[in-house]
Amino acid sequence: MRILVVDDEPLARERLQRLLARLRPDAVVSEAGDGESALGAVQAAPPDLVLLDIRMPGIDGLAVAEQLAAMAQPPAVVFCTAYDAYALDALRHAAVGYLLKPVREADLAQALAAAGRVNRAQLAALRGDEGRRELVSSGHGGMRTLPVDTVRCLLAEQKYVVAYSPRGSLVLDETLKDLEREFPRRFVRVHRGALVALAHVTRLARGDGGWVVELDGVDQRPAVSRRHLGAFRERLAAR
Fold first, then answer.
1. Which fold has domain 135-238?
2. Fold that domain 2-127 belongs to in CATH
3. Closest CA to 16 of 2, 31, 28, 1
4. How confident is the model at residue 224 (pLDDT cuts 50, 70, 90)?
5. Are 54 and 81 in contact (CB under 8 A)?
6. Can you give the residue ranges of every domain in the chain?
7. CA geometry: angle at 149 spanning 120 and 198, to 5°?
8. Per-residue pLDDT tens over the stretch 32-85
9. Residue 39 and residue 59 in contact, taking contact as beta carbons nearer than 8 Å
């Protein structure tokens, strides 16, 4: 079994490694001190389990978990947290393994036995809101992010989806279908290749070849297909 311990506090990492040496002496245990290093470690040697701190500078544990959940074969995740009782209730509701710091051996043993794979719906439940707060793109130029609440539209372009915002654009290795499921109240389908942010629609206008959506802050004017026109008008009227 391969286990990755992720925490920005060296003492916390050392404690978990000591406990794991007793509970899983046959495991191969590695460590990372921040979210970016953790993602690199996962790519280099995919673990079976990640013990993941939530509050870390830079890329926090929830952002790391989002990227792990998008993997074809994601590792199991157990969150390590110093959250208060209210936040722990959210964790329990999401059915995600968690450990309360300082971690006790009995709690770690139980979490190891019950470790499960975290998905985006569970991550949304942890936050108490809809979906992620940031969209993430990783490529040859490094990691880039874009706050979800700034995104005006998501357009399918060739093999990728591009998110457009007044802050710029971001190429995503995700499908419109998955994004529509994750953000059902924020983004509305107007075309098989387009989702628009309902809150930022300024008007539904006539274009050269049919109807288009005008959005504040960006020049993109996504086309509205006949199939989606009626439902889109209803969503506009009800907002």
1. OB fold (Dihydrolipoamide Acetyltransferase, E2P) (2.40.50)
2. Rossmann fold (3.40.50)
3. 31
4. very high
5. yes
6. 2-127, 135-238
7. 95
8. 999 999 999 999 999 988 999 988 888 988 888 888 887 877 888 888 887 655
9. yes
Distances (CA, A) of 178 to 51, 83, 228: 26, 29, 18
> Which value, in Å, is the radius of gyration of the alpha carbons in the chain?
21
pTM of the model: 0.51
Query: Per residue in 140-195, pLDDT tens?
Result: 556 688 899 999 999 999 889 999 999 999 999 888 998 888 888 899 999 999 99
Give yes or no for a contact between 4 and 75, defined as CB atoms under 8 angstroms apart: yes
Helix (H) / strand (E) containing 50: strand 49-53
> How many other C-beta atoms lie within 10 A of the C-beta of residue 87?
16
Amino acid at 103: V
